[in-house]
Amino acid sequence: MVPYMTDYVAPIADMRFVATRLAGFDEVAALGVDDLSLELVDAIFEEAGRFAGGVLAPLNRVGDTQGSRLENGVVRTPDGWAAAYRGFVDGGWNAVPFDPDHGGQGLPRLVAIALQEMWTSANMAFSLCPMLTQGAVEAISHHGTDAQKAIFLPKLISGQWTGTMNLTEPQAGSDVGAVRTRAIKDGDHYLITGQKIFITYGDHELTENIIHLVLARTPDAPAGVKGISLFVVPKYLVGPNGEIQGRNDLRCASLEHKMGIHASPTAVMAFGDNGGAIGTLVGEENKGLQYMFTMMNNARLSVGLEGIAIAERATQRASAYARERVQSRDIAGTDATPVTIIHHPDVRRMLLTMRSLTEASRALAYLAASSLDVAKRHPDPEVRKSRQAMVDLLIPVVKGWGTEVGSEVAAIGVQVHGGMGFIEETGAAQYMRDAKIAEIYEGTNGIQANDLIGRKLTRDGGVTAKAFIAGMRDIDAGLAAAGAELAGLRAALADGITALDSATDWILASQKGDPRDAAAGAVSFMRLWGTVAGGWLLAQGAVAAKAELAQSGGDEGFLKAKIITARFYAEQILPRASSLKAAATAGSATLMAMTEDAF
């Protein structure tokens, strides 16, 4: 039996390469972040890598086997969780991307996303807790009152308290307009009654308080999404100076039994069993969904990263196994002695598929993160506007394609292990089980794809998308100058960009006719975007690596691997673009031809 592997080594070299060569670190650093240097980032990455690998990764299996449990009304997390969370907070890791005015460190999202990847790769179930807190901080920072900011932000940012997002109800999944939770005004606060489901870290014993952001409907609210309001509802009531007071009228009614992420307590939350949980309004009544989208967009980028992080962990596990597992002779030799399976071409195909997809999707996520930094910090409002439009376009792609990459790579990882991959003790199966939820979180990937075609692509008539596509074509000169070594990559990328450009025109035109035509191809279109944009970023990396090799100043093995990975992606992954274009533009006639009773 191959022992379960707890080792996780943060891929700091690739993170640094992506941040500096592909995602615009220099541009972000020039936007007024005090003392931000590569030396500082390297030190942060090294220390974060030690915490992720030394503290969080060994708990991943513990959390999977023990899970969180509800005992006599109290949620208990697995062994080691509380100590790990204290270490996380004491290390200042929770505060990295937040406003220094409330105790944050003010570091760019480009730096924070690399750290978030480390936490998630090491222990996805653990990482979900600070991820939800991050979303709560964003929502209150943008839309909360001065009093709410003063009371809640410092302790959420420090990690002394955690935050949640309460949207989903039994009858209202993605259709948030069907929310029935009620909010009745009572003096300077509201009384909240109702039930929410699928609330990640809805209850736990890690912190002294949990701050719930809850969508609810006031009595005279309009029907549908226009009648939703947002409320801050703490587990324990909080005084004007942030002091803990009595228990609020809310509880964890049960915990879900899930396919994966067993250590993350996914709660059914009951509000108002005894008259109503006390909450305070965020912003104005009936604008809650607008406010919550601040939190959701933040979370969608983070969820996309979850897929990428699990892909990294699965790739590390499969590569280690392939270097250790001895089976069959080398088909290229005459020696009958068995060799490690990494010698076999098909195993190498699987490993390079895993590696190339992981690196391509990482680059796209980091590009979105750095663009968020520019959209937030740049002094020119037109630059901020255009970069935010780019972020809005990329987020559904990062979320949708990134999480599908996570599931695909984790599944290949099981295959690399062969029969041992089907045995839980080897660990490969956990990555596959954990990865699946990311395709569902924050709106299923079908919803992300429809958001891409229905909002992000069409709201400006495709201007942002077409500008992005035109920008991708600029790499051609660099690939041409690189010569024969990258000629295949150049040709495959050109074909992919053309396929994406053509599909984009078709989607834009189809929106003027039967809306089902574009919707039928939305997921394929989303995958096409990710596949081509990922190839473009790997191509940039290959050009940069080749230039560094010519200067003889870098890590030769690392740089050569970047070139080989990009070439493999061009040969094995970019050809998907033509079939994805065909599926994206096929229309809905065949889909809609089947009668309902024939399914």
Question: What does this protein look like?
Answer:
It is built from 21 helices and 14 strands. With 599 residues, the chain is an alpha+beta fold. Strand 4 and strand 5 form a beta hairpin. Helix 15 packs antiparallel against helix 16.
In brief, what are we looking at here?
By secondary structure, this protein is of the alpha+beta class. The chain has helices at 12-22, 25-29, 38-56, 59-66, 81-90, 109-122, 124-143, 146-158, 288-324, 345-377, 381-417, 428-436, 445-456, 463-473, 475-482, 487-510, 515-520, 522-551, 556-572, 576-584, 589-593; strands at 69-71, 74-76, 162-166, 182-186, 189-200, 210-216, 229-234, 236-238, 244-247, 250-255, 266-271, 277-281, 326-329, 338-340. Strands 3, 4, 5, 6, 7, 10, 11 and 12 form an eight-stranded mixed sheet that branches.
SSE diagram, text form:
Layout: H1 12-22, H2 25-29, H3 38-56, H4 59-66, E1 69-71, E2 74-76, H5 81-90, H6 109-122, H7 124-143, H8 146-158, E3 162-166, E4 182-186, E5 189-200, E6 210-216, E7 229-234, E8 236-238, E9 244-247, E10 250-255, E11 266-271, E12 277-281, H9 288-324, E13 326-329, E14 338-340, H10 345-377, H11 381-417, H12 428-436, H13 445-456, H14 463-473, H15 475-482, H16 487-510, H17 515-520, H18 522-551, H19 556-572, H20 576-584, H21 589-593
Parallel strand pairs: 3-6
Antiparallel strand pairs: 1-2, 4-5, 5-11, 5-12, 6-7, 7-12, 8-9, 10-11, 13-14
Helix pairs in contact: 1-10, 1-18, 3-6, 6-7, 6-9, 6-10, 7-8, 7-9, 9-10, 9-11, 9-12, 10-11, 10-18, 10-19, 11-12, 11-13, 11-18, 13-18, 14-16, 15-16, 15-18, 16-18, 16-19, 16-20, 18-19, 18-20
